[in-house]
Structure formats: C-alpha cells, structure tokens
C-alpha cells in the first residue's frame, strides 16, 4: 500500500496536464488512478493478473487468505477509470477488460509521438518514467533503449526510474 501511494504522490507531483501516464500492472493501475486528473491515464494489460493468485494449494491458510485478497484487488483494477489497451486481441473477450485496441510489445514511433501543445514550450523536455525491473522481459531495457534512441536523435528527454537508479540509463 505504501508503494502504491508513494507512486501516486510522485505522479501527482511530476505528471502535468496533457501527459500520458501508463500502468502495466494491477498495483500501478491504482497509483495511476489516484494521479491528478488531466493526464491521459492508460492501463496497458499484458496478462489477466487475477490468475497469478489462483493456485493456493500447499500454502498456509493465512497466505491463501492474503492471495484471495490480492486476487480480488487485481480483478478490481480493471474497473478503475483508466483507458484499457492490451498486448493481445484475446483480452477483448474478458468480461472486465474493455480495450480500446491492442498494441504488441515494442515502440512504434509512427504511433507514439509528441503532439504539439499550445501550453507546452518547445524547450520543455519529454519525461519518460518507468519502474526498474531486473528481469529483462519486464520491459525496463526497452524503456532505456527508447530513452537512448531519443537522446541520440537530439530529443531533449529526461528519464525517471522508480525503485532503481538513473545510472541504469548510461
């Protein structure tokens, strides 16, 4: 709970109107839902996360109860007021997931680009935020690669890494 609230507070402080804030896990969905209004808030769904807590065989009663609570919270995250995007069209068949569309993992610069904004100075840097994950398939490496690509293309970009170090970007 403390981490969810800390991330929500950071989003309130750092993300401004017109920014896009993306959650990619049920706990970060709660943080994004608590962020200041005015941003485009997206839940990028990569798995049906309540299934992570399904198998309770061989665990203590207390742990089984905790997993049941986590399973309900994960399921409820799909009902938060966030726009859903998925990484596969299969999620459209889930009753609580209503994706606007699906985007496979990766970055397509023909889709993701900064739109000109009347209230934003051209000198304002793009801020890219991520949660540091040591497991490579979790996407941190992709975010770091995207940041490096932007910087090498001369784009004024800043990197914010939660639960990690900005040294990772070097």
Report on this structure:
The chain has 170 residues and is of the alpha/beta class. 29% of the residues lie in helices and 18% in strands. Helix 1 packs across helix 2. The chain is globular, with a radius of gyration of 17 Å.
Q: By helix and strand content, what is the structural category?
A: alpha/beta
Q: Total number of helical segments?
A: 4
The side-by-side strand order for the widest beta sheet comes to 1-2-3-4
End-to-end CA span: 31 Å
Write the element-wise H/E pattern from the N-terminal end onward.
HEHEHEEEHE
Choose one word for the global shape. globular
The radius of gyration is 17 Å
Describe the largest sheet: 4 strands, parallel
Helix content bin: 25-40%
Mean pLDDT figure = 84
Number of strands: 6
What percent strand?
15-25%
Summarize the structure.
The protein is α/β, with parallel strands linked by helices.
List the helices and strands and how they pair.
Elements: H1 2-14, E1 20-23, H2 26-33, E2 40-45, H3 61-76, E3 83-86, E4 99-102, E5 126-131, H4 140-152, E6 157-162
Parallel strand pairs: 1-2, 2-3, 3-4, 5-6
Labels describing this entry:
170 residues, 4-stranded parallel sheet, 4 helices, 18% strand, alpha/beta, two-stranded parallel ribbon
């Amino acid at each position: 709970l403390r981490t969810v609230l800390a991330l929500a507070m950071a989003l309130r402080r750092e993300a401004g109107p017109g920014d896009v804030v993306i959650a990619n896990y049920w706990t970060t969905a709660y943080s994004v839902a608590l962020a200041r209004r005015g941003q485009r808030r997206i839940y990028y769904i990569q798995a049906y996360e309540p299934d992570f807590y399904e198998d309770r065989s061989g665990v203590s009663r207390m742990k089984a109860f905790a997993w049941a609570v986590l399973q309900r919270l994960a399921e409820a995250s799909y009902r938060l007021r966030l726009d859903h995007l998925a990484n596969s069209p299969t999620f459209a068949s889930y009753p609580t997931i209503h994706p606007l569309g699906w985007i496979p993992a990766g970055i397509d610069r023909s889709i993701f680009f900064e739109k000109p904004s009347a209230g934003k100075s051209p000198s304002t840097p793009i801020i890219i935020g991520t949660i540091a994950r040591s497991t490579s398939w979790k996407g941190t490496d992709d975010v770091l690669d995207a940041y490096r690509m932007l910087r090498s293309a001369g784009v004024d970009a800043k990197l914010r890494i939660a639960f990690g170090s900005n040294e990772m970007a070097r």
